[in-house]
Design goal:
The protein has helices spanning about 35-45, 60-65, 85-95, 95-100, 115-130, 180-190, 200-210, 230-240, and strands at about 5-10, 30, 35, 50-55, 75-80, 105, 110-115, 130-140, 145-150, 155-160, 170-180, 215-220, 220-225. The protein has one domain: Spore Coat Polysaccharide Biosynthesis Protein SpsA, Chain A, CATH 3.90.550.10. A seven-stranded mixed beta sheet has the order 5-4-1-6-11-8-12, with helices on both faces. The protein has a two-stranded antiparallel ribbon with strand order 2-3. The protein has a two-stranded antiparallel ribbon with strand order 7-13. By secondary structure, it is α/β, with parallel strands linked by helices. The longest helix has 14 residues, at about 230-240.
Length: about 250
């Protein structure tokens, strides 16, 4: 049973300036709460009770806002990623908190609906007894995502932000994952890729090459990667229009 998780929240949010000149992008509001709080609330619907939140050195505002995790019935640890070296590096920074257990990952700057997306992903991962499970959705812009090639529900290849003509499908990773701890071994074998960063898609590709079980689950509903002001406005519009009828 997965009871631990990592929330990477160390991104710079440059495209969300000038707001992010003052506060971390994960603390920008969607409706009546910060983006990252929506993610935490989704974890409340799972068995997860310990979360490592990976932050950059200047993001003490996240710990000020979220606190110890007590009000969510969890325990939060804050792990500093000294340099922004990519998502795989951010996940590796939380290894000591995970302590050789299975765990989930959800990006702290993404907005999802329905709220049970993490519960469904974790349940699928455990049912499949997979080494890695990738949450995916059909995406319009493959150049913003890690794109998978699949046979059945098995992932056989991953390409980070491909050119449209090179994309093997329109199924893109949407920032939620479940892993056995072997992913940390794969991350340590990962070489820098796109923009010199260590990409989690490359680490999962190593798992595929090792013959490990990597599967995907298509996640229904709304997913907004809040990287621009337009994305933030769209997430707020959806939340404010639909909050009354949400399933909890």
């Amino acid at each position: 049973m997965i009871k631990k998780a990592i929330i990477p929240a160390a991104g710079s949010g440059t495209r969300l300036g000038p707001f992010t000149d003052a506060i971390p992008k994960e603390l920008l509001p969607v409706g009546d709460k910060a983006i990252i709080e929506h993610v935490v609330e989704a974890f409340e619907l799972t068995e997860v009770d310990e979360i490592a939140i990976v932050v950059s050195p200047r993001k003490h505002g996240l710990s000020d806002y979220l606190g110890s995790g007590k009000k969510f019935g969890m325990h939060f640890s804050y792990v500093v990623q000294d340099e922004r070296l990519g998502l795989a590096n951010a996940v590796l920074a939380g290894e000591h908190v995970i302590n050789n257990h299975q765990f989930a990952v959800a990006l702290g700057d993404n907005f999802f609906r329905s709220q049970d997306f993490l519960r469904d992903l974790i349940a699928f991962h455990e049912e499949e007894d997979a080494d890695a499970t990738i949450g995916v959705a059909k995406v319009e812009d493959v150049t913003r995502h890690g794109i998978i090639k699949a046979e059945g529900n098995a992932v056989v290849d991953l390409i980070e932000k491909p050119k449209p003509e090179e994309a093997p499908s329109d199924l893109g990773a949407i920032g939620i994952y479940a892993f056995k701890p072997i992913i940390f071994d794969a991350i340590r074998e990962t070489k820098p890729g796109y923009k010199g960063e260590f990409q989690l898609t490359d680490s999962m590709k190593i798992l595929v090459e090792w013959g490990k079980k990597v599967v995907y689950k298509e996640i229904p509903g709304i997913h907004i990667d809040i990287g621009t002001v337009k994305d933030l406005v769209r997430a707020n519009a959806y939340y404010l229009d639909n909050r009354g009828g949400e399933k909890r």
